[in-house]
From TrEMBL:
Organism: Sinorhizobium glycinis
Protein name per its UniProtKB record: Copper oxidase
InterPro entries referenced in this protein's UniProt entry, alphabetically: Cu-oxidase-like_N, Cu-oxidase_2nd, Cu-oxidase_C, Cu-oxidase_fam, Cu_oxidase_CS, Cu_oxidase_Cu_BS, Cupredoxin, TAT_signal
Source lineage: Bacteria, Pseudomonadati, Pseudomonadota, Alphaproteobacteria, Hyphomicrobiales
Keywords: Metal-binding, Oxidoreductase, Signal
Plastocyanin-like domain: residues covered: 56-161, 173-286, 390-483
GO molecular function: copper ion binding; oxidoreductase activity
Region forming the signal peptide: 1-34
Gene3D superfamilies: Cupredoxins - blue copper proteins (2.60.40.420)
Keyword Metal-binding recorded: yes
Amino acid sequence: MTTEFHGRMSRRALLQVCAGLLLTTALPAGAVRAAPSTGYRITATPARARLAGLARPETDVWTYNGTVAGSLVRLRQGVPARLVVKNRLSQETTVHWHGIRLPNEMDGVPGLTQPPIKPGESFVYEFTPPDAGTFWYHPHSNSLEQLGRGLAGAVIVEEREAVAVDRDLLWFLADWRLTEGGGITARFGNRMEAAMSGRVGNTVTLNGRVSEAEAVRAGERVRLRLVNASLARVMALRFDGHRPVIVAIDGQPCDPHEPAAGRILLGPAMRVDLMIDMQGEPGRRYGVIDDFYDGLSYRLTELAYEEGPPLRAHPLAASLDLPRNPLPEPDLATTERHELTLQGGMMSGMMMGGGGMQGGGMMHGMMGMGGGPAWSINGLSMTGDGHAGMAPALTFQRGRSIMLTMRNETAWWHPMHFHGHSMRVLSRNGVAVPHRQWQDTLLMAPKDVVEVAFVADNPGDWMLHCHVLDHQMSGMMTVLRVDGSN
């Protein structure tokens, strides 16, 4: 099997992983529904949704408040939030508030930070979001199946001062593996997929529906919030006829810049905020294309311009800069240095054996081709979703500046998510990363070496794992401890 690693995966590689899958594009997407601004109650419950258009059957899904995507949670920066989560599933669950820097006991990792929410029970999450931006929420219990069946929703933490745009839009993106009859293909945790690219679906939705077109108006400035809630699919989005500007990554503002080669690279669990001045012609349509997988590009949707005169003759003069969040700046001169090495998977020359493994919540079928874990970090494999008593790989004293060198020694892509913190991305393969980028989910290409830095200011035991959830479940997970004692 041959694979290209310059922002694309080869056609042959993907077809071998997901033989027979077809990408679907048709019919408009449904609107994202927002919950009330106060007193959030979120219920995990089964429901039915028409994901692939009116001509296709409905799908049995698991949802938050009965909708795909789940209820949009809108919070205010610096304002306390209280969210009551009720479990009406037939299995335990939790909620992880992805990317939000919150207290450890609110992080949603079963056993490690909270007891799981049993069927029929509730859990109250309380925290004050310090950062404005685009975040999301999803389970951290049986996460491969629960997220794969639809449990996910967006969190928007609003800035203290309004941002100068005409519209603020959310595109909550996910892919699904559907049968011809509209059902979700079972058998989560395929061993071969777990050791390769993970469970890539055959149907891509925008705000819970396959999208034919999204309406825009000439002359308007749009803030477009992109969220990739897929289990494994990496996206590279190209906006034909437009010049989007990246203004935030993973909820954290950066220096505004146009994406390299005009493509927005979006790994699973990542978020990117764009500013787009709609300068197309009224009445015309412009494609939004995902061409990450070589030879398997498809149209995600189209920007459909309304008829009529432009909103304004020239782009809005307001600055594209977003107000910065109160992230502590690491002191690079005094950083404590550590390395994390990602290993394992097919084509790497190393499939994990039975040693070097911490179990816990391990799903049947989630091990590598030889029966052991498929992946490791620094030679140790943690499988499942998290559990009590997970020993930390590294321990940091609270307040210390930390530099991590992360090495991907595998032949596959890994979006590495660090709970409870955001990381300043310093360099990639020896080249400085521009635009002051902070991320909580770092997409690493095969053989990448990336340096990041952060201040270990949030005490507790925090997960660091690959957000290709097959990879997490089969070993690519660890714990980093921030010691809060004096």
